[in-house]
Design a protein that fits this description.
- By secondary structure, the chain is α+β, with helices and mostly antiparallel strands.
- The protein has three domains: 169 residues, Reverse transcriptase/Diguanylate cyclase domain (Alpha-Beta Plaits); 53 residues, DNA polymerase, domain 1 (Orthogonal Bundle), CATH 1.10.150; 108 residues, Dna Ligase, domain 1 (2-Layer Sandwich).
- 37% of the residues lie in helices and 21% in strands.
- The strands form three sheets. The protein has a five-stranded mixed beta sheet with strand order 5-6-1-7-8. A four-stranded antiparallel beta sheet has the order 9-12-10-11.
- The longest helix is centred in the first third of the chain and has 16 residues.
- The N and C termini lie far apart (62 Å).
């Protein structure tokens, strides 16, 4: 017997960082707000809906945002507060299911095919979650309900802000057919242009192309396009995604020489190490140094030492030493530096290997 369709939610907080600021400071309500530091090197972390009317968006340079909206109010980000609210929201999710896949502080996938709460449908579960978020955090969330993850994510954006969109299995084809192909995950500007060369502008037009033709043109990605056009996505909700890297980085107000980076590397190593202390089950063995040049070229250097870094000082020492592997002119300048820990392995297996190598040799 075929298994029943999954019931997937994608819950996305509305203008999360900016909404938290407006909630906590009544003077900001109803006004255009950008969560960002002011300055030439700053970018917008989040924009309130009042700011979006002027074209202000997240990841936009702060100077451009201010040109678009001269009355824009800048509020420095407070990630400690945002993380606290995010934990509240995750607790609400957990009342309904253990299958929660966080994507960031403000959005997550939930598999509600079977729930703890016993509500009669995925739609009822989404409504209950949104109501609890509103009541307990005084914030709003939008949600999408669908048979799989990619459709749920599209749906959550459909009626923003404070909206709900439900795509039932029998509605999938009709929902997808008129959509521009740019709405499909992984289809960016470059892929859009390549599909346009084939006369493909909508998902319906993409669906009319045979699998063999798409694979011949796009390789393995052609098969993925073929599936997405039909609303097929078998990726499950993954409650625990193993940590790939823990890092901290900073963009400078003025570009710096390589020799001037040490105090910043040590400060960022402290931040990365503090984050690493929350990782109890796995061990990081690799130190990563990230640099961005004044002409926006990104460089990374890494090292896996014989012994894992055991303190923020050791992490900083290794990261500082990695500068010697940067083969650039001495007068080159850098606009960003980052320090990270990667190469995660299970703590028990790491300790077992360490114990093995530390055993004394046996005379034969």
């Amino acid at each position: 017997m075929p298994s029943p369709p999954r019931k997937i939610l994608h819950v996305d907080m509305d203008a999360f960082y900016a909404s938290v600021e407006q909630r906590d400071d009544p003077a900001l309500r109803g006004k255009p707000v950008a969560v960002a530091w002011r300055g030439a090197r700053s970018v917008v972390c989040a924009a309130s809906y009042e700011a979006r009317v002027f074209g202000v968006r997240s990841a936009m340079p702060a100077l451009r945002a201010e040109r678009l909206c001269p009355q824009l109010i800048f509020v420095p980000p407070d990630f400690v507060r945002y993380k606290a609210v995010s934990r509240q929201i995750r607790e609400i999710f957990a009342r309904h299911t253990e299958l929660i896949e966080p994507l960031s502080l403000d959005e997550a996938y939930l598999d509600v095919t079977v729930t703890h709460s016993g509500l009669p449908s995925a739609t009822a579960t989404a409504e209950a979650i949104r109501a609890a978020i509103r009541e307990e955090t005084r914030l709003t969330a939008s949600a999408g309900v669908a048979p799989n993850k990619f459709l749920a994510k599209i749906a959550s954006d459909w009626n923003k802000p404070d909206g709900l969109c439900v795509i039932r299995p029998h509605q999938v084809e009709a929902f997808l057919t008129p959509l521009p192909v740019g709405r499909l995950p992984g289809v960016g500007k470059v892929m859009e242009a390549k599909l346009a060369e084939l006369g493909i502008g909508t998902v319906g037009e993409l669906r009319s192309h045979a699998l063999a033709a798409l694979e011949m043109r796009f390789g393995r990605w052609g098969r993925r396009l073929h599936e997405l056009a039909r609303g097929i996505d078998e990726h499950p909700v993954q409650p625990e995604r193993p940590t790939v890297q823990i890092s901290a980085e900073d963009t400078f107000e003025h570009d710096l020489l390589l020799d001037e980076l040490e105090p910043h590397i040590r400060r960022l190593a402290e931040k990365a190490w503090a984050g690493y202390q929350r990782e109890h089950e796995r061990v990081a063995r690799t130190v990563v140094l990230k640099l961005k040049t004044s002409d926006f070229r990104t460089l990374t250097r890494s090292l896996t030492p014989p012994q894992q870094p055991r303190s923020a000082i050791e992490l900083a020492d290794i990261a500082c030493a990695l500068r010697e592997r940067v083969e650039r002119a001495a007068d080159d300048r850098y606009r960003l530096v980052g320090v990270g820990l990667a190469g995660f392995v299970d703590r028990d297996s790491y300790q077992a290997q360490a114990d093995l190598f530390e055993q004394p040799a046996i005379d034969r």
